[in-house]
Write a structure and sequence with these properties.
This is 3-phenylpropionate/cinnamic acid dioxygenase subunit beta. The protein is of the alpha+beta class. It has helices at residues 18-36, 40-44, 83-93, and strands at residues 47-56, 77-81, 106-118, 124-137, 141-156, 159-169.
């Protein structure tokens, strides 16, 4: 093989280029704006057909308990959804019977600490980020959700689509009356 025409693929876990990191950071910001503006059609367009959206429920345990609470898909989860299930949840909002959304909730998503790595697939990237999501409805209902995410984003036709998201909330107890927010 001619070395001048062969591109060596970066190793798995290697930091992505500044250009890719910037593009994916902007994608995360665009996603947050879509969610804040309730532009769910715009958000769904950013989701891959083979999406897995997962937010496990995590119990407070002693360090010596090595039970896998994060990747065990048979355990309780707030979200363990495919694209079809996400679309079904969003369709419910259009029915007029979603009491938790009338009057509308106001959202703000803040995304920070973005890191991008290569995966073993040339068109997919692992993206680590932290988030703060604030929501307010009616006069006094406020919720703040804080956590971290590990995503897989796939490059498709010059854009990126979310393939997998694992959300880890930093709360010991979920105090929200409902969970009508995407993170």
């Amino acid at each position: 093989m001619n070395q001048t025409t062969t591109l060596e693929r970066p190793r798995t876990g290697a930091t992505a280029s500044l250009e890719v990191t910037h593009a994916l950071t902007q994608t995360l910001y665009r996603e947050a704006r879509c969610l804040d503006d309730e532009d769910y059609a715009g958000w769904v367009a950013m989701l891959a057909d083979d999406l897995h959206y997962h937010m496990p429920g995590i119990e407070t345990r002693y360090r010596r308990d090595t039970t896998d609470q994060v990747t065990d898909l048979t355990r309780m989860a707030y979200y363990n959804d495919s694209l079809g299930e996400i679309k079904k949840r969003l369709t419910r909002l259009e029915t007029g019977t979603a009491w938790s959304e009338d009057p509308a909730t106001r959202y703000t998503h803040i995304v920070t600490n973005v890191e991008v790595e290569h995966t073993d697939k040339a068109d997919e990237f692992r993206v680590f980020s932290n988030f703060y999501a604030y929501r307010n409805r009616n006069e006094r209902d406020e919720d703040s959700l804080i956590g971290s995410r590990i995503d897989i984003w796939r490059e498709t036709g010059g854009a990126y689509q979310l393939v997998k998201r694992r959300i880890i909330l930093k709360h010991n107890v979920m105090l929200s009356k409902n969970l009508n927010i995407y993170l």
